[in-house]
Amino acid sequence: xxxxxxxxxxxxxxxxxxxxxxxxxxxxxxxxxxxxxxxxxxxxxxxxxxxxxxxxxxxxxxxxxxxxxxxxxxxxxxxxxxxxxxxxxxxxxxxxxxxxxxxxxxxxxxxxxxxxxxxxxxxxxxxxxxxxxxxxxxxxxxxxxxxxxxxxxxxxxxxxxxxxxxxxxxxxxxxxxxxxxxxxxxxxxxxxxxxxxxxxxxxxxxxxxxxxxxxxxxxxxxxxxxxxxxxxxxxxxxxxxxxxxxxxxxxxxxxxxxxxxxxxxxxxxxxxxxxxxxxxxxxxxxxxxxxxxxxxxxxxxxxxxxxxxxxxxxxxxxxxx
Length: 321
Ligand code: SF4
Ligand SMILES: [Zn+2]
Ligand SMILES: [Zn+2]
Fold this sequence. Notes:
Layout: E1 12-14, E2 19-21, H1 23-40, E3 50-53, H2 58-69, E4 75-80, H3 87-101, E5 105-109, H4 111-114, H5 118-125, H6 129-148, E6 152-154, H7 159-171, H8 175-178, E7 184-185, E8 194-196, H9 204-213, H10 230-244, H11 248-258, H12 260-270, H13 288-296, E9 306-308, H14 315-320
Parallel strand pairs: 3-4, 3-6, 4-5, 6-8
Antiparallel strand pairs: 1-2, 5-9, 7-8
The chain binds iron/sulfur cluster and zinc ion (2 copies).
One zinc ion binds at residues 3, 5-6, 8, 21-22, 25.
């Protein structure tokens, strides 16, 4: 198998494009594809200040690495879920990338809320861990943007994430969620930051290859609470379809994007309320996070961040870590 551009031995085949590429040409292919998405959908415009939601996994570390390489200076934000043998390893990978990029990371420790990790907290809230995690992450990530002056929250979601979520929503006809996914969700000034997904049209496999070829040290293990998740089953099914008919996932997601705008506009009209306590968009008078704080009997002050800033570590400190 030879690289279609230079004829050197290829390291990856891209069946959806009927092509194969060597390492440098694959890296530049994925970067160009991401840059096209950024430009076409106006994900990061002049004057915007992006921050990347990092988990320590391949997608978020790769998008953070790539954005900075492409000239989009971006810091990171991390939610420590307090999961034994997982959260600390994840953060170590994030610190390593922060050192490489010389970028700041804000981290929020979920134990600030109740002294418990996400599973203990979820039990108190009578939710399943992923539901509590999703709600808290959305809130806290938005909060860091608003408090520290970032305009744009970047996530590492890829086409496999989007296609599997879309598949699940279509399968059960969850119309209320169908209009909510997009490459870009615009800001609502003072309340909600802009949210963007530069890897929206890149596959998980391609991103893993990009991470490996760039020596990005990411956590291989998945979050233990993802075991048995329906989205993983959908991903597996879609991968089998993709193998039989390359290009299926991209057709599915691009088709969705074409019919998206109308639904989204209606969705915005339906959610004009803002929380009377913190200003976060909500369907009722108080947002879910403020309800959680009430239930735990704690104030908004518990939502605060630690900062890891490699630019202020001296050389001795850096060598010791
Ligand atoms: S799998 Fe883990 S990281 Fe993902 S939503 Fe569930 S608890 Fe959160
Ligand atoms: Zn080549
Ligand atoms: Zn609130």
